[in-house]
Amino acid sequence: MVQSKMIADKRCDWCHGNTRYLEYHDQEWGVPLVDSQRLFEFLVLEGAQAGLSWITILNKRENYRLAFDNFDPLKIASYDEKKTEKLLGNAGIVRNKLKVRSAINNAQRMLELEEAGTSFSEFLWRQVDGVPIQNNFKTMQEVPASTADSDLLSKRLKHAGFNFVGTTICYAFMQATGMVNDHLVRCPRRAECSELSL
Predict the structure, then answer these.
(1) Full-prediction pTM beyond 0.90?
(2) For residue 29, what pLDDT is reported?
(3) Is 64 a catalytic residue?
(4) Marked catalytic residue, from 46, 64, 125, 171
(5) How far apart are CA 55 and CA 76, in angstroms?
(6) 72 backbone dihedrals φ, ψ, rounded to 5°
(7) Is residue 54 annotated as a catalytic residue, yes or no?
(8) Dihedral sign for Cα atoms in the order 84, 87, 70, 25
(9) Which residues constitute the domain of residue 114?
(10) What is the pLDDT of residue 8?
């Protein structure tokens, strides 16, 4: 018991106090993700999170998966006004018109990329040359809200027609999907994630 508490206390500060946060931290955050549909899911969820807490989005995640056809970009790209209005009436998701329309727009832009011969995964991972950035932060205060890489990724996404992809959203997305490893040095997950390959 003492050992497990000691291990738990070494985790990144942000995940303490909530079981769902702990599970997300221990199983997903910082794990290099290359599946385009899963990457799209995170892009939609990070956009939905803007101005809200991440736990709010984690609590609504399953509702999002149901409402957005498990984040299938082919289906989302074809959503019409009737479907959009249905989504805006769904209390299980963030009912923000701009965010809902952004998910539809971004699905369409993702398909355009892939029709042009570039997978969404390739497009995103190109930002870090296909290799996760391994940071060495000791405290949460050292972890930035954005970086030069997230600035560039934001610009590239916007140039491709995506929206709700500002640099802060992009950096949170990069952290979540393992493009950068921002687990604190003391956190057991830092070493585990650093050993994962694409």
Answers:
(1) yes
(2) 97
(3) no
(4) 46
(5) 24
(6) -75, 110
(7) yes
(8) positive
(9) 2-194
(10) 56
Q: Cα dihedral sign for 96, 86, 42, 17? A: positive
Neighbours of 173 (CB within 10 A): 24
Instruction: Pick out the chain residues at pLDDT < 50.
Output: 1-4, 6
Residues 6+ apart with CB under 8 A from 170: 146, 150, 151, 153, 154, 157
**Integer Cα distance of 129 and 47 in angstroms:** 24
Count structural domains, the chain: 1
Catalytic annotation, pick one of 29, 54, 79, 171: 54
How many other C-beta atoms lie within 10 A of the C-beta of residue 138? Answer: 10
Rounded to whole angstroms, the Cα distance separating 107 from 71 reads 9
| CATH code of the domain containing 173 | 1.10.340.30
Burial pattern 2-38, b for ≥16 Cβ within 10 A else e, equals: eeeeeeeeebbeebeeeeebeebbeeebbebbbebee
Using an 8 Å Cβ cutoff, are 40 and 106 in contact?
yes
Distance, in Å, from the CA atom of 144 to the CA atom of 160, rounded to the nearest integer, reads: 25
Catalytic site residue 46?
Answer: yes
Q: What are phi and psi of 132, to 5 degrees?
A: -55, 135
DSSP letter string, 35-56 = -HHHHHHHHHHHHHHTTS-HHH
